Amino acid sequence: TTHVLPQRVTILGASGSIGQNTLDVIERHPQQFQLHAISAYNNVDAMLESCRQYQPQRVVMVDTDAAQRLHQLLQQHQLSDIQVDSGAAALLDIAGNSDSDIVMAAIVGAAGLLPTLAAIKANKRVLLANKEALVMSGQLFIDALAQSNAMLLPVDSEHNAIFQCLPSAAQQQIGQQQLAEHGISQILLTGSGGPFRQTPLAQLAKQSPAAACAHPNWSMGQKISVDSATMLNKGLEYIEARWLFNCQRHELAVLLHPQSVIHSMVQYQDGSVIAQLGQPDMRTPIAYSLSYPERIDSGVAALDFTQLSQLTFAQACPQRYPCLQLAIDACWAGQAATTCLNAANELAVEAFLQERIGFTQIAEVCAQALAVLNVAEPRQLDDILAIDEQTRCFVREHLRSVAA
Ligand code: NAD
Ligand code: MG
């Protein structure tokens, strides 16, 4: 494929961990990539800094007051030709308008669903970090992709690794592959087990937000860090992999790998296993998804194999990680369940971060929301948004009764 260079990039969720890493990679390749637009919820300081450093044409702050403050600050810094907008409509506009070629979907949580779908419908090259969008909308997301001329590249390190280990024919059919026809027997999704992998089970309940966010290998936003500690992140990734690679149940398995050197693997029918290895640095999958099928410098150092002492593997313990099993069960129960689980978890994690509930209550809240869920399978986007909202209402009420 030939592209008109430079390609114009929009970053949704630019103030976050993935967003900032994306800016870092783009800056290394000014001939190839030009920043069109960036968005954030309300982090004015981060966006001012990014405007000064990277000079996008447009900025969207979802929060109106934040947009006003940023606008004033940009004027003070002689950057008034950067257009600042606010609100959900502006976010959809930068996701789908014709002024960009590539959209990095790096908003956290359900808030990223509509803008990510807008980018797909607008036939962009969509770099998907926002796993919650796919977890919520599943088949609808894959159908929208199939009906568009968009190209989806997974940024989540595991899914990016799996993508790299697929034959190119299977890479061209995201969400539609018949894995067995490509000689694939199983996808092995690896996960570190998070900061509490060796914490005595009896001490899990009293773990603090700071401890949960101290991931041993990766530096990430708060929500995904807590999800990594409960391993609901691996559960969301399991659902994400099910959709991206059109897996059947026996074709997908989770494996603990505490060193995070192997980022996931594909096992073939002939006994071969292909793995992708690298430093735990998101700039590698970000660079890959920006430049695919070519390779560019990401700023990440090569692995030094002589410094690796060992690579170990184990099964995830169900007593330690009840959220993982909740997600696997939800995955095969259907899309109402996965939408419900995602919404319940978002509120439970928020309550945990605010110290309104304890660490082990995250799983309890999710299990409770799934237990009372009683709705038909969603058939369209409105159904999904209704299940999301209904779950949030239930969980808010439930949190009032359980929170200390
Ligand atoms: P983060 O919390 O650091 O950043 C989130 C971004 O989303 C910020 O720019 C924030 O302003 C924006 N945002 C938050 N709420 C919003 C709302 N309601 N409307 C619009 N924008 C909103 O998160 P992150 O760690 O960068 O993760 C982003 C996404 O990428 C998540 O879905 C996460 O699961 C996924 N991901 C992250 C990593 C990682 O290493 N950080 C790895 C794999 C996948
Ligand atoms: Mg991941």
TrEMBL record:
Residue ranges occupied by any 1-deoxy-D-xylulose 5-phosphate reductoisomerase N-terminal domain in the UniProt entry: 9-138
One Pfam family of this chain: DXPR_C
Enzyme class name: oxidoreductase
Binding residues for Mn(2+): 156, 158, 237
Cofactor(s) needed: Mg(2+); Mn(2+); Co(2+)
Gene3D superfamilies linked: 1.10.1740.10, NAD(P)-binding Rossmann-like Domain
Reaction(s) the record says it catalyses: 2-C-methyl-D-erythritol 4-phosphate + NADP(+) = 1-deoxy-D-xylulose 5-phosphate + NADPH + H(+)
DXP reductoisomerase C-terminal domain segment(s): 277-392
Entry binding sites for NADPH: 16-18, 43, 130, 132, 221
Annotated 1-deoxy-D-xylulose 5-phosphate binding sites: 131, 157-158, 192, 215, 228, 233-234, 237
A molecular function (GO) term: 1-deoxy-D-xylulose-5-phosphate reductoisomerase activity
EC number: 1.1.1.267
Keyword Signal: no
Keyword Magnesium: yes
Gene Ontology BP term (one): isopentenyl diphosphate biosynthetic process, methylerythritol 4-phosphate pathway involved in terpenoid biosynthetic process
Keywords: Isomerase, Isoprene biosynthesis, Magnesium, Manganese, Metal-binding, NADP, Oxidoreductase
Pathway(s) the chain acts in: Isoprenoid biosynthesis; isopentenyl diphosphate biosynthesis via DXP pathway; isopentenyl diphosphate from 1-deoxy-D-xylulose 5-phosphate: step 1/6
Family under the similarity heading: Belongs to the DXR family.
Function: Catalyzes the NADPH-dependent rearrangement and reduction of 1-deoxy-D-xylulose-5-phosphate (DXP) to 2-C-methyl-D-erythritol 4-phosphate (MEP).
Name used for this protein in its record: 1-deoxy-D-xylulose 5-phosphate reductoisomerase
Source organism of the structure: Idiomarina xiamenensis 10-D-4
Native organism taxonomy: Bacteria, Pseudomonadati, Pseudomonadota, Gammaproteobacteria, Alteromonadales
